[in-house]
Amino acid sequence: MQSEDEGEDSDDESDDGDYEPFPEIDPSSDSEDEEEDDNEDDEDEGEDEEDVSENDTEDEIKIGPRPKNIISDITGQPKRVYPEIDPDYDSDSSTEDTPNRVGDIPMHWYDDLPHIGYDINGKKVLRPARGDELDKFLETVEDPSAWTSAFDTNAQMDRPLTAEELDIIRRLQENENPDASYDPYEPTIEWFTGKGKEEVMPLSAAPEPKRRWVPSKWEKQKVMKIVRAIRQGRIVPNKPKTASAQPQFYAIWNEEPSTHPAPLPAPKPRLPTHAESYNPPEEYLPTPEERAQWEATEKEDRERDFLPQKYSALRLVPAYQQFIQERFSRQLDLYLAPRVQRVKLRIDPNSLVPKLPSPSSLKPFPVYKSLQVPHAGQRVRCVSVSPDGAWVVSGDESGVVRMWEVTIGKEVKRWTFPGKIGSVEWCPRTDVSFFVVGMEEKLHFIIPPNLPVSILIATQTLLAPANLPPPPSVPSPVKWVSMAASASTSDAPILSLDLPSSSGQAKQIVWHRRGDYLATVSSGENQAAVWIHQISRRHSQAPFKKVKGSVQLVLFHPTKPHFFVATQRFVRMYNLAEQKLLKTLQSGIRWISSMDVHPSGDHLIVGGYDRKLCWFDLELSDKPYKVLRYHSRALRSVHFHPTYPLFASSSDDGSIQIFHARVYNDLMTNPLIVPLKILRGHAVKDGLGVLQIRWCARQPWLVSAGADGEVAVWCS
Amino acid sequence: MASLTNGDASHPVVFTTQTPYPLPAQKFMIPASWKRYQLSQLVNKALSLPKPLPFDFLVRGEILRGTLGEWCAEKGVGEEETLDIEYFESVMPPQKMSSLPHEDWVASISCQTPGYFFTASYDGSLRVFDYSQKLLHTSAAHTAAATSLRVVPGSSAGKYLVVSSSHDLTARLTEISLPSSDAPESTQPSSRTLASLHLHTAPLSSVAADVSGARILTASWDSLIGIWDTEIPDTDEVPLEDVQGEGLERKKRRKVAETENAPRPKRKAPRGVLRSHTMRVSRVVFGRDNDGRTAYSCGFDSTVRTWDIENEVCTSTITASSKPFLDLALTPSGNSALAASSDRTVSQYDLRAATSSALAPSVATLMHPATPSCIAVPPADASASATSSSSEHQLLTGAYDGVVRLWDLRSTKSAVTAFKVWEDKPATARKVLSVDWAKGVVGVAGEGGVEVWRVGQGDRPFPSS
């Protein structure tokens, strides 16, 4: 309480005493006085009260602490005693009254000692008794002023804070200036403004410079530059009002609210896991092998960019070295984050597979090998089924042509020719019955045995007429040789055609649907590879004077007078009546091996040695409608069933693949192609598999000729 | 009463039978570990038969192959359920009796005539063998492959009228005279082609003769069925085709005539033609009613047709779905037809329920691993069926894999027994083209010639060599 009063008093004093002179110190009495002070602290304080009252009265007379003359108890001499100095900011800390005079040293030096220092007289200051923790707690509970006390290390005891200290604490808490005497609202002291304080005398005696009244030359030059620009029209003084000059404010609520989705929230950084902890569980710590592996891997390949480390305390954790890198990558993440919400498509891969009907619903189609007709191990290059679907002729490379029943496989007739059989084909007519065998450069026309008499007569008169038709005006290099009808038997060919020599093997024979024309393709490379023969006129002609590329296959269109010619890469479609090229089909196949046209005439399938099968929609495009790559080796033969919606392809991999191929009359619906069955059973011999396949008319049966010398019938 | 349990799990079982060996209707407790052999022993003991008879057992229509417990486990039948087990005399394993070698394929065999085998071969010849494998006679009846052959019943002893069909578009009636058994040295076997039947414009596939021997049916690839009688006309009913190509045929025919040393066969015209099939007719048979008025035929157009021969109309049609039929046979009862088709099945069709409209579901389907080409049912005459009624459920099928299978229509899952023919030939050259079954003798004809097997219940009088 006393000190508070004194503080206030001293405040008043300090207000006035800015330039208060330091109190005089009497050097003579200094040492003595100081010694006395400690002993007579309590007395002094008691006397102070009186002093204050005296001071107040004499305040005006004397500034500063006044010495008091007292009679010393010890010496009996009068001495001057100064009042105690306030622990003000002005005061010297050295004047503080502390019993312990050890100074500002670490107090733990005295931890082991019974005293805590020495007083001014060199006597030990004993350590005050301190209670245990319970006492301290009880003190804090019992003493209401305990919370305003602090531990004084110098005295080793709790001291209640003084009012000034509490006031300083309060000011610091309230963000005020801790100096209570500071007044931020002092009245300003005018030094230069106001009456009588103006500057009367000039600061220098220099005359006024010329620039104060002469117009600036540089300004004039600048202005003249602008004027000249205005005159020359480089600067338009009054710019026409543009749209941008419209008022810049508008009613924001008039606009339609934006339909754009709200901007996406930034992607959230990944939350740390246990592994990122400074003190992770043991199981997260990497083993030495894992650590070595982590260090061995490239930085980009690491699964995570840190190794879990264990620290016993958080304060031991070093600075994070990757901080900049991490912040940078985070910025990159934000910068590169997608600005649109992308809906992740959850698509079942199976739903992308086109919906195809199940093969079992597309029955009948051949599924098994019903029987096999051996050809004594010779490669069977060609096979053909009679138009009534009852007989098969097959020819092999040793020159044997066999005719057998489809259902039983019993050979009923055999012909042997002195050369390789390249092709056999039945005449598609039903009023006559014969087939053509292409043996090297000859075509042999053979009448099968056991024919009804009427058909036999018709066939004989067709192939060996009694009176020959007039020879053509231009003699053809193809010779037609027939034996007399009466002398003809089924053992020998009734008619033979000699293709021009060196034209090579007749590798393909194809009939026009009416059975009057047949076209042959020879393997020779020269121009005379393709011949069209007309039975009724006994005349052969080469339809192409010049063909680009070597012709692989030819085909008659089933309904129109069109003619397909397949070279190695392209299929050309000619109109025979108008003798012009209709279109060129680009299959994309490197080397075409086989070709067949759908019975409707609108679709063409082309097989290639490069394992591809192309389906052309002739109405649609020159490019394939569909390319099927199901075989593992080169395709050898493709064939459409004449009545069933089936086609088959055979390959050098020894397999035959059956497809369901339904075409629709309307031009809008695409053909439906369903793979049905892979028939395996032919052996691959010398890299050759199934060389030719033919469907049986009227039944879903397939006849296949293989390089292993077997001809097989596949039944449904 | 009859408790046969020996600590094992057992099933209550009631035995039924259609054989003349019935058991009293009572429950037996049968151990689950019992097989056919123990069951058969049980039946034999219970009946106290003088001579033990092997039996086969049908559990709910299936022939028991493993133990009873295995069957129950497979079917999920509980232990408490009473099982009805039907038993019948089991089929003895077939035994090969003999083989009749042929140089060419044999298309058809008939063993309905006791003591002889008649075969039709692809070389156009008809051959007669006796039971001692001796070739009695060869008749070069056809100029092309013969496809089918039937012995017309009712011929006198020693003289057999044989009708055969061929690829040469005719069927022929051939009279073969064989020495009678009582006087073997009296006559040399000879044959004479009496008549040729001219109707078809495509190879013939089969012939049939009715029981009385008065009518003949021919089926052909040209979808026609011809009706003929067996009377031999005095003159040609069909004029000889006077054609350019006659030379060849005349030459051949002359050769035939020279070998047979007989006048040229008369050319017969059909009495009627049955036209309804749209594709090849593969088989025609007479009905079982013995009056020769009904006929059944099957063809590649997936139909089985019933014909009224008198009126020459098709009375009903069974249409199957894409099953080109290769062969047809009637069950001994005559109520259902068995048809083999090229989709490797033999289907049973109920002829009584046949309608001509919708697709007819088959009663039973026998699955084969190869194309079944021929069907034979056991002979239906009284002497054969007297001993056993189980034969009416049996049939034989021959397939292109060279296996002849014996089926029981009550158990269609798998064949009762099977035997392989021509095992010395390669697997692709064992096609069976015809089987015929008469009185325990089964003739199997095909690619490898003819083999004769004995199939049947128990031991029968069989004049083996």
Automatic annotation (TrEMBL), chain A:
Positions with biased composition (Pro residues): 260-270
Alphabetically ordered keywords of this record: Nucleus, Repeat, Ribosome biogenesis, rRNA processing, WD repeat
WD repeat ranges, renumbered to this chain: 380-414, 628-669
Molecular function as annotated in GO: ribonucleoprotein complex binding
HAMAP family: BOP1
Homology family: Belongs to the WD repeat BOP1/ERB1 family.
Name by which UniProt lists this protein: Ribosome biogenesis protein ERB1
Organism: Obba rivulosa
Source taxonomy: Eukaryota, Fungi, Dikarya, Basidiomycota, Agaricomycotina
UniProtKB/TrEMBL annotation, chain B:
A GO molecular-function descriptor: ribonucleoprotein complex binding
GO biological process, one term: maturation of 5.8S rRNA from tricistronic rRNA transcript (SSU-rRNA, 5.8S rRNA, LSU-rRNA)
GO cellular component, one term: nucleoplasm
Each WD repeat, start to end: 197-231, 274-317, 395-417
Subunit comment: Component of the NOP7 complex, composed of ERB1, NOP7 and YTM1. Within the NOP7 complex ERB1 appears to interact directly with NOP7 and YTM1. The NOP7 complex also associates with the 66S pre-ribosome.
PANTHER family per the UniProt record, alphabetical: RIBOSOME BIOGENESIS PROTEIN WDR12, WD40 REPEAT PROTEIN 12, 37
Name of the protein in question: Ribosome biogenesis protein YTM1
Organism: Obba rivulosa
Underlying gene: YTM1
